[in-house]
Amino acid sequence: MKFMGSAIAILRKDILLELRGKESLSLMLFLSLLLLVIFNFALDTGKENVSSLASGILWVVFTFSGILGMGRTSMAERDEDAYLSIVFSPASAESFYIGKVLSNLLFLVIMEIFTLLFFAVLYDFEKIISMLPQLLPGLLLGTLGFSLVGTLFSFLTTASRYGEVLLPFLYLPVVVPIILGGVSSMDIILNAKAGGAGKWIQIMAVFDILYFAVSLLLFRYIIEE
Amino acid sequence: MNIIELRGVRKQYHAKTALSGIDMYVRQGECITLFGPNGAGKTTLLKIISGIMSPTEGKVLYNDKPYSESDIKKDAFYLGHRTSLYNALTVMENMDFIRRLFSLDRRWQVEDILRGHGLWERRNDPVNELSQGMKRRLALAKGFIMNPKIFILDEPFTGLDHRWRSAVLAKIKDIKKQGKSVLISTHLVEEGHRLADRVAFLHRGKFLFIKDREEVDTGEIYGLFDSMGEAAR
């Protein structure tokens, strides 16, 4: 109970920080909007192509907007060494990690909802909204994987002077299985391809479990020095 | 009873040795003041004692257990050069966050503590709108909600005017009376000496001495600062 109480306190604090500072979610939303507009101009996204391009475009947007947002939430902890308030409290490193994962997850989900809506409007592709129930497992598992790894790596890299530059280089290679799974499962569902999205969903679930176990173990060492 | 013990501690930052041959202990309920010029290793030593930093070599024990197996961070309050505050949150939100982390239900206590630190009137202001001195007071006020066994305070008087310096001094004396241990680093010779049960002087990562307060007078400490070309206050 106390474990989750600390995690919820951290989530609540991050929501308040976002409401006051508008440093993470607003930047994520702006970047996702910008990327969607750029892709709209750069690619031939006519009615006949958009279905095959949708998964690639959306997961690129999710990935890069996510990196930006998670970097910012960790920076908020490093500014003025604010995270030491949590370190010198009864909250365990594990509940600290869970709290940060939850807040990153929340911001990522909001960004993805916004991105999907804007994609549907900008690319005249309402099908993506009507197929949301089928897409949901892949989206949720992918977002969870992003948050599990992103929380760990963003905290690791923000300790360095070049943190925000380093983050994509460390984070992207590790989340490749999630990106692959997300793009493939969405592509299969949107274009009714053979093979089914199930195996990709399973792969993402396995990686999420792996990421969770490893990150939970490592987070303690990252905040210690 | 020794609650913290350091044996042969050395800290190396690449080619620079920040601390070497540090042996010390902290007894329950005592106050140790660390003096020393800038770069002497005071902050590094306090970070190692608080468990934020690991020594390159040597042992650090809390209640006779190595730090890796101890819960020093759950029993200590560390005030570093930075305030450990969330700048975008208000004074009250920062305090409320700490209260929630510690599962405390005592809202009235937060009010008392904020009043005691002259911050109640500013409770709804974001921290980034406070002066340096107010931030420092708020950072210290957090320690009183946490109610830890050990206070580790790195230059707690920085940015405080004369009035608040005296107020903080009185609060630290109260902490001592409650049987808590206090470790302070400061350049303020009179204040630091008055608070201490034992006084230590660090220079180039080594203790020049660590003695009972009665064995060292302030003149000796001023003299050491002078000889190192640094002005004590």
Short description:
The complex is a heterodimer of chains A (225) and B (233). By secondary structure, chain A is mainly α.
Written account of the structure:
Chain A is mainly alpha-helical and 225 residues long. Chain A has one domain. In chain A, 84% of the residues lie in helices and 0% in strands. The radius of gyration of chain A is 18 Å and the shape is globular. Chain B has a domain of 161 residues: P-loop containing nucleotide triphosphate hydrolases (Rossmann fold). The radius of gyration of chain B is 18 Å and the shape is globular. Chain B contains 8 helices and 10 strands. The mean pLDDT of chain B is 90. In chain B, the strands form 2 sheets. In chain B, strands 6-7-8-3-9-10 form a 6-stranded mixed sheet, with helices on both faces. Helices cover 35% and strands 27% of the residues of chain B. The relative contact order of chain B is 0.18. In chain B, strand 1 and strand 2 form a beta hairpin. By secondary structure, chain B is α/β, with parallel strands linked by helices. Chains A and B meet through helix 1 and helix 4 of A and strand 6 and helix 3 of B.
Structure characteristics:
heterodimer; A: 225 residues; mainly alpha; 9 helices; B: 233 residues; alpha/beta; Rossmann fold; 8 helices; 10 strands; 35% helix; globular
Question: What amount of the residues of chain A lies in strands?
Answer: under 5%
Task: Write the H/E string of chain A, N to C.
Answer: HHHHHHHHH
Low-confidence stretches of chain A: none
Report how far apart the termini of chain B are.
33 Å
Write the layout of secondary structure elements.
The complex is a heterodimer of chains A (225) and B (233).
Chain A: H1 2-21, H2 25-42, H3 47-78, H4 84-87, H5 93-122, H6 127-130, H7 132-157, H8 163-190, H9 198-224
Helix pairs in contact in A: 1-5, 2-3, 2-5, 3-5, 3-7, 3-8, 5-7, 5-9, 7-8, 7-9, 8-9
Chain B: E1 2-13, E2 16-27, E3 31-35, H1 42-50, E4 57-62, E5 65-66, H2 72-75, E6 76-79, H3 91-101, H4 107-116, H5 132-146, E7 150-154, H6 162-177, E8 181-185, H7 189-195, E9 198-203, E10 206-212, H8 218-227
Parallel strand pairs in B: 3-8, 3-9, 6-7, 7-8
Antiparallel strand pairs in B: 1-2, 1-4, 4-5, 9-10
